[in-house]
Write a structure and sequence with these properties.
This protein has 105 residues and is mainly α. It folds into two domains: 30 residues; 68 residues. Helix content is 79%, strand content 0%. The chain is built from three helices and no strands. Helix 2 runs antiparallel to helix 3. The longest helix is centred in the C-terminal third of the chain and has 32 residues. The two termini are 45 Å apart.
Length: 105
């Protein structure tokens, strides 16, 4: 990044902070926030990404276990444990989301 870009960035940051400090920015209730619950959307997005990450990681563990372990009782136990922990994570994420939204609304 060149010096001109750095100066532009610094000027923009200073302007943003100055406008925010002077109270010139409109309150959240006047914009889209009056129509939508943006905080709920952010929380739903966060929990959705956590669930998708958990599904992908547990799928990967199941795939590796199925490919590397022989058909023994240990393989079945590990796969059942993998599924059980994934279901427990789903329940935990749903509980946390429910409690958070219940307290906010």
């Amino acid at each position: 990044m060149g010096t001109a870009a750095l100066h532009r960035f610094a000027a923009l940051a200073w302007f943003t902070l100055t406008v925010s400090a002077n109270g010139a920015s409109p309150p959240l209730a006047e914009g889209v926030g009056a129509w939508l619950n943006l905080e709920a959307i952010q929380i739903l997005t966060h929990h959705t990404s956590a669930v998708v990450t958990a599904v992908v990681l547990f799928w990967l563990v199941g795939f590796v276990v199925q490919r590397l372990l022989h058909d023994t009782i240990f393989k079945k136990i590990v796969l059942w444990l993998d599924e059980f922990v994934l279901v427990c994570l789903f329940i935990y994420f749903a509980y946390e989301l429910f409690i958070y939204l219940w307290e906010r609304v």
